[in-house]
Amino acid sequence: ALPICWRLQAWRRESDFANTSVAVAADRSTTTPANDQYETPATGWGVNAALRRSTRDVAGGRLEWELGADARFNEGETRERFRFMNGAFTRDRAAGGETSVAGLYGEGSWSDDLWLVAGGLRLDGWRNENGRRREWDRETGLPTLDETDPDRSGEVVSRRLAARRFIGRGWSTRAAAYSGFRPATLNELHRPFRVGNDLTEANAALVPETLQGVEAGLAFEGPISALGVNLFWNRIEDAIVNVTIAEGPGTFPRAGFVPAGGVLRQRQNAGTIEATGIELTARQTLRQGLHLNGALSITDARMDGGSAAPQLTGLRPAQAPIWSVVGGVEWQASDRLGLAVQARYESKRFEDDLNSRVLDAAVAVDARAEWRAGARTVLWLAADNLFDAEVEVSETAGGVAGYAPPRTLSLGLRMEY
């Protein structure tokens, strides 16, 4: 047996940024300030501690295990001006809170010449606390909304079990079953936001999404070629969805005025999402230093809103394309120069929960070059969205599209120690 190893990690991150948004006139001829998010102070920190050990000659194979605990804490607040009237913002808002997740876990794996079996079990406790939202008139200072959210907490058990067997001549089969969860973010819990004339309300009552999944696959790994096919099924319960609850024009509790052509949504635990699909991957070395790679994903995802959101039953989740394809070329032109190009395709998808707004299919190409200037120094140049493709990522009820970043060039230096 090898000695027991230990690991202790801690991290902390602070952030702040500002952002503004506008409302668009019905004829798209003018815009009006809609929101001025002037401060967003946030802090995240966490810790992980673990014991790990490897043991040889257990039932003819090698056993590895790890026992540990981890915790993550977040706190943040948005401070913003809104309700633009007569040339000025008339309201102020401060909203935020704290979230935390802490867990205990154990995981292990066993392997021999033919088999690899791995599994894990963890127990997490989550907590949302100190949630608040205050809004006031900027001229008088009088409050227009003052809410304190009750603290909420719960526990989630997550499991996973996977096995892979080599069947000869580079081929192997694999299968896995797993569960997991995702707690709501501070933004989802506390911060309403606006895009054009569409408003989305926060929801401090959100509970974590939970995931169950199974998958099975077949793979080939050779000296110059690799192929893989994977079938999967996933089910997300208590899925957090931006649910449409009203259409403008109109004035609504908490949200205020929604213009004509706009909609009001709220983040809700809106039933379940089931997704079934297939993933294909391939890699081929054409000659020394020149490689081709590609991946294809086909996913059929459907909502079941249940009693929480029956209008969503049978619809596709927002921003979930059926087809996704990635293909690329990598060339190590010399000991110092490496070049890579990758193209990404996504089929049409829906922007909203009601499947009423369609985002066009798109192709984007990225390129990267690296030059090793020394034993520990690499210079790199990258071009994201090389051909400046218009990739739709959002669309308002009035048909105003939002796009992914245009062509972006970046230059960097990486030093290794």
The fold-level CATH name is Maltoporin, Chain A
CATH superfamily: TonB-dependent receptor, beta-barrel domain
Largest sheet: 19 strands, antiparallel
Radius of gyration based on Cα positions: 25 Å
Q: Regarding CATH, which class?
A: Mainly Beta
Tally of helical runs: 1
| Proportion in β-strands | over 45%
Counting structural domains, the number is 1
The outline comes out as globular
Number of strands: 29
Order of helices and strands: EEEEEEEEEEHEEEEEEEEEEEEEEEEEEE
| CATH architecture title | Beta Barrel
Mean pLDDT: 94
What would you call the structural class? mainly beta
Distance between the termini: 32 Å
Give the helix proportion (percent range): under 10%
Low confidence ranges: none
Please characterize this protein's 3D structure:
With 417 residues, the protein is mostly beta strands. It has one domain (5-317): Maltoporin, Chain A (Beta Barrel). Helices cover 1% and strands 70% of the residues. It is built from 1 helix and 29 strands. The protein has one helix at residues 186-190; strands spanning 5-15, 19-24, 31-39, 42-58, 61-85, 88-111, 115-137, 143-148, 152-168, 171-182, 193-195, 198-201, 209-221, 225-237, 240-247, 250-252, 256-258, 263-269, 272-287, 290-304, 323-332, 337-346, 349-350, 358-359, 362-372, 377-384, 392-395, 401-403, 408-415. The strands form 5 sheets. It has a 19-stranded antiparallel sheet that branches. The protein has a 4-stranded mixed sheet with strand order 11-12-18-15. A two-stranded antiparallel sheet has the order 16-17. The longest helix is centred in the middle third of the chain and has 5 residues, at 186-190. It is globular, with a radius of gyration of 25 Å.
